[in-house]
Each structure stands twice: as C-alpha cells, then as structure tokens.
Fold:
Amino acid sequence: MKCTILHEGRGRLRVHVENVRMTLHRADVLEAYLNHQDTIATAVVYERTGDVVVTYTGSRAGAIAVLAHYKFDVAENDALVTSADSRKLNREYQDKMFDLVAGRALRKLFLPAPIAAAYTVFRSIGFIWKGVRCLLHRKLEVEVLDALSIGVSILRSDFDTAGSVMFLLNLGSLLEEWTRKKSLDDLARSMALNVDKVWVRSQGTEVLVPLTKVRTGDEVVVRSGNMIPLDGTVLEGEAMVNQAALTGESMPVRKVEGSTIYAGTVVEEGECVFVAKAEGGSNRYDKIVAMIEESEKLKSSTENRALVLADKLVPWCLGATAVTWLLTRNVTRAISCLMVDFSCALKLSMPLAVLSAMRECGSYHITVKGGKYLEALSKADTIVFDKTGTLTRATPQVVEVVPFSGCAEEEVLQLAACLEEHFPHSMANAVVRAAKEHGISHEEMHSEVEYIVAHGIASRVGGERVVIGSHHFVFEDEKCVVPAAEQEKFDALKPEYSHLYMAASGQLVGVICISDPLRPEAAQVLNGLRALGIRNTVMMTGDSARTAASIAKQVGVDNFFAEVLPEDKANFVQQAKAEGHTVVMIGDGINDSPALSAADVGIAINSGAAIAREIADVTIKADSLEELVVLKAIANAMQKRVHANYRFVLTFNSALIVLGAMGILQPASSAMLHNLSTLGISLKSMTNLLPENTAPQLKA
Structure:
C-alpha cells in the first residue's frame, strides 16, 4: 500500500492512502487488519478522505512496514471483519440526516408560504393519526403529546411552529434509531470473535477461504491444533478430537471415516477431511446478534420501570399543559409544555445503558445474556464456587499412587487408567496421562463399565467388582473398607491433594493422589468481590472434607461443603435465595448445571461443558478469575448510571416544563432542548463504565 505521511507525533502517524478508491468495505478490512497487528495499538480509517491514523507500540519503522506491506482486495483479509458493516450503517444514517436537514432548509428558503403551509398540514396527518390511534387504544403515550402540539399549532395557523416541531421529532427519532443500532452493532462486535479462515479442498488443491464462503458439501481440511469450524462428516483421514467445549470432557475422541464431528471442537492429533453439513454464512456475529435480540426479552426490572414510568408521566405532562392554559390563557405557553416529554429520554437512555454495559463486558471476554442478570449481579451478596475447574485450573496431575492390600503402584495405575479412559474428565485425564508417561499399557481387562454420575466408575475384573471414585462413593455407597493393618497409612494421606479411591471386592487397593493447582489469583479475587458488595463466599466440591478444607483455607472462602452431589449444590442455592440472598453460582461442569439454573445469576466457564454454558446466564473466558471482579464492578456501575439517568431526566425535563409555562421558552426551543438532552444522555449512556486502565490484561 502506497501512502504519504501527513502528520506524525510520538507513537502516532497520520497517513493518506494513494491511488486507491477507499470503499466502505476496503476501509473496514484495512482497519481490522491493522488492529490485528502486534505492533499497532489502535488504527482508525477515514474512508471519505482516505486517511489512516495509527498509534503504534513498536518502532516507527515497524509501523511503516506494516502499512507498506498491506495489499487491498486480498480474500484472506476479508475474514478479519464480521458480516455486518458498521461504516455502511453510519453512512446510511449520515445520508438520512443530511437529507432531513437539507430538505428543511430548502423548504424554508424557497417554498412559497401557501405551498409550505399545505405541505406542513399534509406532513402533520401522520403524527396526528398516531396520537388518535393511541387514544383509540385507550393509551396516553408520548404520541398523544406530539399530536396535540402539532394539531393545536396548525389550528392556530402557526405553520412554522408545527413544521419545526415535526422536524425536531423526525430528527430526534432518527438520532435515537441510529444510536440504538450503533450500540447493538458495537455490542455484537465486541462479543464476536474473528471469522475463521478455513482450508477448503477443491479440485485436488487446498484454498484458504473465509468461513462465510463455505457452503454445504464443501470439503474442509483440519489439522492438528486447529478448531473444527462447522459440523460435518469425516470423509477421509483419522484424528483425535478434543470435544471439551461440547461435552466438558478433556480426553480426545477418535474420529475416522464416517464419524460426525462438531463445530467448536479441536483436533489434538492427526488430520482429516470432512464434508460440511451447513454453510458458514451463519457466523458468530449473526448468532450473537440473534442472542442479543433474544436478550431484549430479558430486560432488567430497572428497564421495565423506566418504560412504565415514561408512560405514566404522559398524563402529568398533559395536566401541566392544561393548568398552564387555564392560568395564563396563553396557547403558546401551553404548547411549550406539550413539547416536553419524559418518555424519549427514559425509553432510550435506560436500554442503552444496559446494552453499553453488556458491550463493555464483551470487551473483557464476558458474555451476558440479558440486562436482568447485570441488575441481579449488582444486588448479589452471595457467590458459590465450584472447585475443580473454577477455583482450580482443571489441569490436574497425578503426584503419588499409594497402593493397599498388597498391590503394586503399577497395578493400581494400570487398572485405574483402564477404567478411567472410558469416561474421561479432568481427573480421569490425569490418570490416563500418568499411565502413559510411566509406559504402562492398560489394555481392556474388564467387562462392561458403569459410570455413576458425580460418584465414580464400577466394573468387573476377573470376577471381582472393581470401583473407583470419590470417598463417598467407595466407602459409603459401596461399603468398601480399608485393610485394618493399613489404617495408619490411609490416615497419613496428604490432605492438600484430591484423592481417587479404588477398591476390589469391597477392599481398598489403592489411592491416587492428584494435584489440582489453585488459581494464583483466587484469594485476591475473593477480596475484590467482597469490596464490591459480596458478603458470603462459598465453595462446594465433591472432594473429601480434608481436601476441601485445605483448599478453602488457601483461597479464604467464608464457608465450604465437601462430598456434595449436584442436587446438594442446587438445594443450597435455593435455600440461600429463600433466606433473602441474591445468589451467584459459578461452575464449569455438567454437575453444576442444576445449581447454575437455580441461582439468580449462573456463571459458566467458557471452556466447560456445553450444557453448563447453555444454562448459564453469563459466560466468562476465565483465563483469569479477575473477570468476575470486572463483571461485578460493571454491574454496580451500571446501576449507578441508571439511577443518575433517572435523576437527570426527571429534573431537566421538569425544568423545561416550568420555563415553558413561564413563557421563557418558546415551543420550538423547548422541543430542541428536550431532543438535545435526550441525545446527550443517550450518548453518555453509551460510554464505558470502568476506567480505561481497569484490568487492561483482561481486555479483548
């Protein structure tokens, strides 16, 4: 790309692109490309002038090299932008705004008075009909106020005032629509990941194309380390696929010719070619937009109160108008009162404040499914943590194998791996991996295995019933015992580790000690949550009481529960809610789903089980639990902004009514100030709630 430097400062360049017609799409792609470069902090492209403003973090020469090496109209770069074109949206509304203002100016300057009056009357029909329709439906809404103000002005032959009012109403409506659509688009973009590029096999060659270009029946190639972008059927090849994003289980699944593979899963080993079952056009952006639209049904009670209050204030505006006319007998003053309504600002600023908060959450890798959950988070005083995969990193490792009943360590590990490989989860994965590292082969030695959810595994080996799982499962459910001579050895097991117990024929044969490292930020996060209003922190785990106590002490939770079942977590949440607490539950597994569903706000780890993410109200990426602190801070700040909006709207518009009644403000001035205040508070509602330097490492 050939460009000329127009201006430069420290870490900043403004350049002009030469010899290229800067279309909206080219500008979007160029901006996305530059913002994906490591040496570029921010980049803004101005399509009308063909200028690019770049802020860089590396060297000046590196930034210039990035600009110089860029090539327009390269298909691969199209994958860097979403299917929505924000520039097209802005251009559309800019043109509408220009047409509206220019039309008004031309009519004022060149249209003869009789024709202008007739045009005003014609335009007023639509506004008056909206007001009449509200009355026919027995509703007193803002449309009634608009119809009265326009109708009275026309009856008084004050066509200029009527025209000004309609112009300002159209202008306000256009700005409101533009603002809302821009907010929705920004939210969707912040939540959408980049559209994937995939290798498609065509006529014996592989071509890298954007996911949006993939069609049903296309042959897609995926290799080790790559994510599978679409559902499909394996055509050739063999691969071990990690389906943790789908099932919550970390052990890879073997996929061969004819096997079904699913979008979002990852090839850990091998490669394969699959036939796509659906088109790639329904990309992440589209799905996220659909989710946002669905979330509109999940308005917070604050939003709903704003909508109700806005409509309830209409009769008061009418009353103020009537009183003003009765006291002053001045129609102009009465119309000035009619020009002001509370509805516009309340109905626009409150939803925008919520949408903006959701967008800001997206910039921190947090997905919120509805405004009601942010409101609940702001009121939350109790948070319940699952342990494995939440407070810990879900990357457990076998640190020790303690044999019992005369068994050898290798025997215990071999049999454990043989059983655990059938029903993999993070703990099972650690056992299988440890056996592999020790060179232990674990061929099938058992009959059909049985998986008992949240408990363990049972099977028969050599006619003996063998079980492996939690302390509760092995010793209480299965009634297994510790050899009397080895009780001291059993009591000496280190409590800081998680334990898998294995027994045969009712007698303990081995304990596998597993280290599940605590997230280093966990204790700090809990302190941060307490500072933001959380009064009770709880940890619930299926681990033994000794292990749970050790972890609880390290992380600093207020209370903990060990050896719990899925229903125990849900029961605790329901009990806490019954006691008047607002409860947040955070987990990552299938076992957490009942509690996630029962909580006021269920938060799922994005890498966890699909059912947990589906049920949860909020999902976090959870590279760091600090995202929880950011989430709570945004929720609290959103509520403060909403209450501030309430105060401003009620105070400012009440002042306009008073000034209009006193004759200080003319109708057109009242309408203009009202619309400007609505626009101003809406724009304010779209700004970030947290300072720019808040948890920068978490930013997308």
Observations:
- The two ends are 27 Å apart (CA to CA).
- The first strand starts at residue 3 and ends at 9.
- The CA atoms of residues 180 and 611 lie 32 Å apart.
- The chain has five domains: 3-89, 111-188+293-354+636-685, 197-282, 380-393+518-622, 397-515.
